Amino acid sequence: MVAPAVITGTVDATQELAAFLRTRRERLDPRDAGIPAGRRSRRTPGLRREEVAELAGISVDYVVRLEQARGLRPSAEVVEALASALRLVPDERAYLFDLARHRPRETGKPATTAEPSLARLVADLSPRPAMLMNHRFDILAWNVELARLLLDFDALPPPQRNAMWLCLLRPEMREFYVDRDRVLREGVAHLRAAWAAHAEDPVLAALITECLTRDEEFARLWGERAVRVNGRGRKVLRHPDAGLLTVEFETLTPQQDPDQRLVIYRAADEESQSALDRLGAR
């Protein structure tokens, strides 16, 4: 088994920018980029550096230096040209701009406690399960319904009240999600976006390092460098008391506290609603 990478300190933007550009270049089908099929045969997948340079309107040497992490900081115009040439989706484009430091950086310390009015809102959302998280997936506040649906968070040490940590490293949670592979893949892609947007957060870097060193599946997915901010979706749960149920979730970001995220669950069908009702009546 190959030893996983370790996140030492905060984001090394130059190295990550280089790696991200390489992986996105190598995954792109030349036909999708409008490269004529008649060009010489390819020994490696994806586009060549000179093709990316041509599509982006920059020099081949510049692309080489970027991919070799040779200390360049591309302008916003160059980042936009590269994003277009590599056919990046919106979340990947935002990630590239974060790595190049062309989006406004987060100011102040990351939220580690729930803003009181938001904590009250979480309670007021009953009987819908709801929680408040920060960008690290730390769970800052929750209502009774959420605890009955997922875990008794009051019984956990504060460092373990983290959605990614629980999914990976809490034994009883490993079988909780029926489609665990998809849930984990989406979570890792979301965490990578947060990592670039909060480049100076050593606690987030420490969380990622722990997951890399303790979970082989996380290390594999992290190495794929997928980026996606997932604000809504559906999960099928294997609840120890209520059985199988399907929930939909929506994530909202308060304007006054953009570092905190309100997550609201609701039943996806009548059977799941009946299961939630049974949990609420306990």
TrEMBL record:
Q: Which SMART domains match?
A: HTH_XRE (SM00530)
Which superkingdom does the taxonomy of this entry point to? Bacteria
Q: Which Gene3D superfamilies match?
A: 3.30.450.180, lambda repressor-like DNA-binding domains
Instruction: List the SUPFAM superfamilies hit by this protein, alphabetically.
Output: lambda repressor-like DNA-binding domains
| CDD domains xrefs | HTH_XRE
Membrane-crossing ranges are none
Question: By its UniProt entry, which PROSITE patterns does this protein fall under?
Answer: HTH_CROC1
Spell out the PANTHER family in the cross-references. Answer: BLL4672 PROTEIN (PTHR35010:SF2), BLL4672 PROTEIN-RELATED (PTHR35010)
What's the name of the protein? Transcriptional regulator with XRE-family HTH domain
Q: Which organism is it from?
A: Amycolatopsis endophytica
